[in-house]
Structures are given as structure tokens and as C-alpha cells.
Amino acid sequence: MNQLLVEEIDALLPQTQCGKCGFPGCRPYAEAIAEGRADINQCPPGDQEGIRKLAQLLGVPPKPLNTSHGLPRPGKVVARIDEQLCIGCTFCTRVCPVDAIVGAGKQMHTVIAAECTGCELCIAPCPMDCISLVSVAEKTDGIRQKQAADNARSRYRFRLQRLAKAKQASPKAVTKAIAQPEIIPTAAEERKNAIVQAALKRAMAIRARTDNNRPPVK
Ligand code: SF4
Ligand code: SF4
Ligand code: SF4
After folding, report:
1. What would the pLDDT profile of 140-182 be if each residue is shown by its tens digit?
2. Looking only at Cα atoms, what is the longest distance across the chain?
3. Cβ of residue 9 lying under 6 Å from some atom of ligand 2
């Protein structure tokens, strides 16, 4: 593979690490483009401007975004966790491609907004539906946008290295760490438990609200 070309393509990708292109991150997509396995119009976060830059680099005509991969989002978003609802199941931390969520098992989790790329990957696995996306001011100048992309790229690479080291030390543990809950049976079991915990927590919250609204016994 032409590594220089891969680097050049990767440098033009937004580093959201969302996987919408059909690859598990910007770097794998860059490799696929360099090898002719993917087209230049599969990255919704990069939108038309990203396609234009890729076309220029590769000396091919630009083309419209392939919207079967999703639509571009107007403006920047980051994830936010409703910490009152979080049950600390850790599903979100396992899928975050840039390690932007902190929190220990059975404890409240928080998104480090400055590190979040808005990739949305943490939203679906959350059994409490307590992660939402909020709009934030976009870095408008090119230098700050590049700094943000470089930072996301470093964090993505660091996470892959961390997982690779953990896999060497304990292959089972890392399978659990990156498990897709719907695919890995042990994670599916964990997910079931988390959903039960989530239902209990919701029921307790409703009960507490009802008790608070009940008139005092005379
Ligand atoms: S930003 Fe998302 S869709 Fe675009 S290349 Fe990176 S992982 Fe793929
Ligand atoms: S916190 Fe959620 S939206 Fe933000 S980068 Fe991590 S997985 Fe993506
Ligand atoms: S997936 Fe949801 S409930 Fe589980 S730790 Fe993350 S925010 Fe909390």
C-alpha cells in the first residue's frame, strides 16, 4: 500500500471517526480509497468540500456525496450525558472512538466535550437513552479546525494502541471492552442486565416523583 498517499488522504478527512463511510474510522477509509476499494464520496461529515479536496488530490472529477452513507450535519454537535439517569453500565465508553467519555463501572459517566467529535456512536448502546447531542459553536477558522482534527486523530490512534496492548495482556478482557453488545453473547447478557437496572432506576424515579406530589397524610 502507498503509505504516503494514505497519509495524504487521511489528512483531508474530518477525523470524526463515525464509521458512516462503511469503515471503522477515517484511517481505514483512507486506506480503502488509496487501494481503490472505496469511492471518494462516502464521508458525510466531510461533505462536498471534503470530496472536492479528495478529487483534487487524486486527480479525478468530484462527484456528489453518496447519501446512502448519511447526510452532513449543519453545525457542530457534541454528546451530553444526563448524569441523573446514567447507571454506569460503561457501554458508551466502550464504543467511543476517541476516549471522550469518563466514568467507572456503576458510576456516573461524563462526556469531555472538548474531545467529543460528535460521532454519535455512544447513543445507540445506552440502555437509559440518556445521551443526547447538543449544538456547540463551530471552530470556523481553518487552523483551529485542523488542530481539532489532528487531536481527534491522535486520540483515535492512542485508543487503538491501548486496545492492542490490552489484547496482548488479556485477549478476553479486550473482547469485552470493544464488544458490540448485539454481537457478543457475554455482552448481550450484560446489556440485558443493564436494561433491567435501567428499568428499575426509571421506576424508582417515577415512584419518587409520585411520592413527592402526594398530599401529606393528615
Ligand atoms: S469522518 Fe466518519 S465517514 Fe468520514 S472518513 Fe471518518 S469515519 Fe468515515
Ligand atoms: S462521546 Fe459519543 S459522540 Fe462524542 S466522540 Fe465519544 S462516542 Fe462519539
Ligand atoms: S451507556 Fe448510558 S447509562 Fe451506560 S454509562 Fe453510558 S451514559 Fe451511562
Report:
1. 788 888 999 999 999 999 999 999 998 888 766 555 555 444 3
2. 82
3. no
Nearest CA to ligand 1 atom 6: 26
CATH class of this structure's domain 3-69? mainly alpha
Closest ligand (CA of 202) = 3
Helix 142-169 to helix 26-34 angle, to the nearest 10 degrees? 100
Q: Give the pTM.
A: 0.84
DSSP-H helix ranges across the chain: 3-12, 26-34, 47-58, 91-95, 142-169, 171-177, 185-213
Cα-Cα-Cα-Cα dihedral sign, residues 29, 33, 36, 41? positive
Fold of 75-213: Alpha-Beta Plaits (3.30.70)
Q: What phi and psi values does residue 79 have, to the nearest 5 degrees?
A: -80, 150
